[in-house]
Design goal:
By secondary structure, the chain is of the alpha+beta class. The protein has eight helices and twelve strands. It folds into two domains: 89 residues, Alpha-D-Glucose-1,6-Bisphosphate, subunit A, domain 3 (Alpha-D-Glucose-1,6-Bisphosphate, Chain A, domain 3); 84 residues, Alpha-D-phosphohexomutase, C-terminal domain (TATA-Binding Protein, 2-Layer Sandwich), CATH 3.30.310.50.
Length: 246
């Protein structure tokens, strides 16, 4: 195009214009950046929007397969198990941190991991620089296409998980005590307090994190089964409400 066309988004944030353009010109790949281009999301060769965790999974596979050093991905407790499973399938491991790209970058420096990132499209490459770079992510994904062919064919091979993101109102002065009470009520389960409270199950997990900017709790529920992810999400939203009203 002579003049860059504006990126239109749905209420869910998907880059609609990029999807349409990939279909129109039969492109192998589409991508879109945020305002300062430190993040990048992708569109497959079928014109399908790929959530940030899918892009991270593909680029992590590329890095792990190509590196002669440590075969590690650094990401956060909120990352989908889909990415961790995909990295494990090619001989790599995932190291979890609290949420935030600076925290991920510091852990990469500490461990020597070649790649790090979050599910928001922010990806860090150790052989480039220890901060997010959307242009480098786009370049590496083009390398992935050159090596592997159809992006959608590779996406279809990834493990399947279902994630639901919800929130429940919570006054700021109640957040710390709420975490304590939920942890106490689930003390018999596998708990992780790296960032908020994460409860791990055989088929997935639930993560409860107090928002740092709003009076609410963010509740993420993931499972291999969509109905289970939905049920847990609703149950923990209700649990937060019950504790606050008691």
């Amino acid at each position: 195009w002579d003049v860059p066309r504006p990126l239109q988004r749905t209420s869910g944030g998907e880059p609609v214009r990029a999807e349409e353009t990939v279909k129109e010109i039969h492109a192998d790949l589409g991508f879109a950046h945020d305002g300062d281009a430190d993040r990048c999301v992708f569109v497959s060769d079928t014109g399908t929007y790929l959530p940030g965790d899918v892009g991270l999974a593909l680029l992590s596979i590329l890095c792990v397969e190509n590196t002669a050093g440590k075969k590690q991905l650094v990401s956060t407790v909120a990352l989908s198990n889909m990415v961790e499973d995909a990295v494990k399938e090619v001989g790599g491991e995932t190291i979890r941190t609290a949420v935030g790209s600076p925290i991920v970058a510091r852990k990469m420096i500490e461990t020597g991991a070649p790649i790090g990132g979050e599910d928001n499209g922010g990806i860090i490459f150790a052989d480039h620089q220890f901060c997010r770079d959307g242009a480098m992510a786009a370049a590496r994904m083009m390398e992935f296409v050159a090596k592997n062919g159809s992006v959608q064919a590779q996406v279809d091979k990834l493990p399947k998980y279902y994630t639901i993101k919800a929130a429940a109102p919570c006054p700021d002065d109640k957040k710390a005590q709420l975490l304590v009470e939920i942890a106490t009520g689930h003390s018999a389960e596998k708990l992780d307090t790296t960032d908020g409270l994460k409860i791990t199950y055989d088929d997935g997990w639930v993560l409860l994190r107090p928002s740092g900017t709003e009076p609410k709790f963010r509740i993420y529920s993931e499972s291999k089964y969509p109905d289970v992810a939905k049920e847990r999400s609703e149950r923990f939203v209700e649990e937060v409400r019950d504790i606050l009203s008691s």
